[in-house]
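Re: the 114-residue chain
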Amino acid sequence: QVQLEESGGGLVQSGGSLRLSCAARRIRNINTMGWYRQAPGKQRELVARIGSSSTDYLDSVKGRFTISRDNAKNTVFLQMNSLKPEDTAVYYCNVRDVWMGAYWGQGTQVTVSS
């Protein structure tokens, strides 16, 4: 059974940092790994995504967030620096298998206080 194990969310003051991790279990042909977020009353949006040789970022997080992956451990990380209250949301890990499609984590809450 496929599992995405997320960790690293929490409460932080504005300007602080958090690091999210997501370990993918039993996904054999990983294509992209990434993070989405959803704030109350808003649509889910792509925050950052990493492929074999490329990365994509939401404009508002460029220069503050960094996505990386450990292919040996099928794990993706999101280092979030200079956090702002508007970054407050539930963050979801997303892993796309070449053949089986996309899998989602259960979500981890990130709250940034002003």
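The mean pLDDT is 96.
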